[in-house]
Design goal:
The chain is α+β, with helices and mostly antiparallel strands. The protein folds into 2 domains: about 10-85, no CATH class; about 90-160, no CATH class. The chain has helices at about 10-15, 35-40, 85-90, 110-115, 120-130, 130-140, and strands spanning about 20, 30, 50, 55, 70, 75, 75-80, 95-100, 100-105, 145-150, 155-160. The radius of gyration is 15 Å and the shape is globular. The model has no long low-confidence stretch (mean pLDDT about 95). Bound molecules: iron/sulfur cluster. Iron/sulfur cluster binds near residues 29, 78, 80, 84 and 88.
């Protein structure tokens, strides 16, 4: 979904969005019933736990480890390829709750490739190419995809609920 602004090669080289520490474990992707079915059908071994009307990978920090790796991550990138969760396909954009009746789409400063692009480029992708509509529709269907606002995440567009 971000191919206009981020090449697959750049994305595959990085993998920062697939590794979590305690401060950003909230970033783990929402797994819809369709994705859970795909995991089952293709024999991907991953424990899931319920999160609202969707699921997430069961993650943990064993033996004092600082980092937790997504179970779908391999040295070659994501095992799921084009079937990766929606949250992963749109990262580093996130829907965040700004107020009781206000949602915003933010960009994670952790992704250097995208967060450093000009505002005009990011806005065009979100607004002109319809990505914002898709993200807000997804957030409405799966409320667990909406994250609490993080202070250092620039807000790119907002929508009243
Ligand atoms: S599902 Fe794939 S893209 Fe998403 S966090 Fe896991 S390894 Fe990364």
């Amino acid at each position: 979904m971000l191919s206009k602004i981020l090449s697959r090669a750049e994305c595959a080289k990085c993998k920062v969005c697939c590794v979590f520490d305690r401060s950003d474990i909230w970033e783990i992707p929402i797994i819809t019933d369709e994705t859970a079915e795909y995991l089952n059908k293709h024999g991907f071994d991953a424990e899931l736990e319920q999160r609202g009307n969707a699921k997430v990978f069961r993650m943990g920090f064993k033996d004092g480890q600082e980092l937790s790796y997504c179970p779908m991550l391999t040295s070659d990138g994501c095992k799921l390829g084009d079937n990766k969760p929606f949250d992963c396909r749109v990262w580093p954009f996130r829907v965040m709750r700004l107020d009781d009746n206000l949602l915003g789409i933010t960009v994670s400063p952790v992704c250097n490739n995208v967060s450093t692009l000009p505002l005009k480029t990011l806005s065009e992708l979100l607004l002109n190419d319809g990505l914002a509509d898709k993200m807000f529709a997804y957030a409405e269907k799966y409320p667990a995809a909406v994250k609490p606002y993080e202070d250092n995440y620039p807000i790119l567009c907002i929508r009243k609920q």
